[in-house]
Amino acid sequence: MILTPKQEAIRDVALRFSREVLRPGYQAREREGVIDRKLLRQLGSLGLIGPDLPDRFGGIEAGSVVAGLVCEAIAYGDFNFGCVQMMGSLLGALVARHAIAEVGVAWTRRLAAGEVIFCIAMTKPKGGADAANIQMKARRAGDAYILSGEKTSISFCDQCDAMIVLARTGMPAEGAHGVTAFFVPTDLPGLSWTRYDDLGSKIVGRGSVFFDNVSMPVTRRLGGEGKGFTQVMQGFDYSRILLSLMCIAAAQASIDETWAYTRDRQSMGVAISQHQGVSFPLVEFETMLAGLRQLGYYGLSLAEAGRPYRVESVDGSENRVRCDSPVHPDRWALCRLHGSATPAALARCDGIRVRRRSRADHEIACCTRTRGTRQPHFFTHQPRS
Ligand SMILES: Cc1cc2nc3c(=O)[nH]c(=O)nc-3n(C[C@H](O)[C@H](O)[C@H](O)COP(=O)(O)OP(=O)(O)OC[C@H]3O[C@@H](n4cnc5c(N)ncnc54)[C@H](O)[C@@H]3O)c2cc1C
């Protein structure tokens, strides 16, 4: 896909910020475990949060392709900050489209300015893949709804300023049709949360949210009763592509780091990148990423043109799995190129943690930077003597 000069210009601003400002502090921030609000406001002031939102809602009306370019560029330097972009575009659009004007305009403008964070509370305890089977209840009481129940695995749960919550207003037998979306500011009484001790993405902070008879006015409903599930699922078609581009960015960062290392590391009088056994797989990974990236942008250009793009979105989701899986052979091959799995060498491969079990046997927990929240997958590798 050939970018327009405007798209390139916005992408370059995001990439410069990502490389010069975000990347150097990526690992230090991860240890701090919270989103740096100053950086958030800087991103907002550059127009890099929700760039696809309409001007009235705080965006720069730059379109879906630009939303992808920004997500990818930011995730290259800090995958976790990429979540801010992805959530900004997904949830900003949901609120802009479905909230009443007094709520939607004020809140999305603050979102795009980097003053507030939104999160989405959809997943229920014990099984999120069955997404329509939402159990949390929203009971109507006059001009208010009363929310009670629990949501789990919620990104930004203890840092967000407002949540988009999916709750059941209808009967369980109605399935997806009995689900309604609400816009819930987090300063309401009755809300509490716990944070998981995740393996990575600590600055995003995933956890559970508890609603103990949280009361809010009917005006905080997003769209009509029973429409919430469809609204959110349409948004997920879009955010799935953004997420896949974030994973492509993280994979690209790993490949770039590997190229740099293999050009630096000398063996038998030459840089090891001169050996075909080293350079060929790297070129193959580059080719794969280039193809996956184009598919993502094709999907976003279809979205921008108002044409169907679900197939491209689902394929994009497969891309994500391919790029971010810690057990994927490509990832593992990249680790190997960093020096036969010695802990010090593997530490160069960003996001990979190594635990030494014995001298002869290294247990390597590959917590990739893209999906640090997964349980680690352990490889047993015999180091060179
Ligand atoms: C990093 C991260 C961030 C997240 N952030 C959010 C968030 O901000 N908001 C939010 O609402 N949720 C969030 N989630 C939750 C996410 O949406 C769920 O993890 C997802 O829906 C899967 O649900 P589950 O983890 O409960 O797995 P389960 O549904 O319990 O699935 C477990 C296993 O069973 C398999 N399985 C389930 N159903 C089927 C089936 N029908 N056929 C075949 N296999 C099946 C799954 O593939 C999986 O392997 C987040 C999750 C992660 C990992």
How would you characterize the overall build of this protein?
There is one protein chain. With 385 residues, the protein is of the alpha+beta class. The protein has 3 domains: 5-117, Butyryl-Coa Dehydrogenase, subunit A, domain 1 (Orthogonal Bundle), CATH 1.10.540; 120-226, Butyryl-CoA Dehydrogenase, subunit A, domain 2; 233-381, Butyryl-CoA Dehydrogenase, subunit A, domain 3, CATH 1.20.140.10. 46% of the residues lie in helices and 18% in strands. The protein contains 11 helices and 13 strands. The strands form 4 sheets. Strands 1-4-5-8 form a 4-stranded mixed beta sheet, with helices on one face. A 4-stranded antiparallel beta sheet has the order 2-3-7-6, with no helix packed on it. Strand 2 and strand 3 form a beta hairpin. Helix 7 runs antiparallel to helix 8. It starts with a helix and ends with a strand. Residues 339-385 have low confidence and may be disordered. The site of flavin-adenine dinucleotide has 13 residues, from strand 1 and strand 3.
